[in-house]
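Study the following:
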Amino acid sequence: MKLLTATKTTQGYRRNDFDWCVEGELVHIGVVCARDENDPDGGCGCGRAFAGLNSHRATTTAMIRDVAGFTDEDYVEALRSSLEQQGFDAANAEHEAALLRALVRDWPVGAIVERRLDEIVVRQVAQP
């Protein structure tokens, strides 16, 4: 299954890149605070970041990886568990998983993506 994962690859492309996630951990598109809601380069950084499901940290770069043996049910559970651990409502975990699967469906494995508020774009395609 193709999934969004944290990566250090292409860190430094933008001067305000950061990576506090664990390399390869699953990430999702987290909420954006009021400070960054109109500016992905705002002071918080959440408007340009992906959120790690395990570390609960953030990164500005994510890689599409093929995670062998991972099922749709596994993905929903990973999202649900992460959201609950952070005190968020996990009722939409299944819907979020479907949206994230659709997001990466047409990108190749090895694509490195960045976030600019609601826009997710490919920075580079690396060898997986």
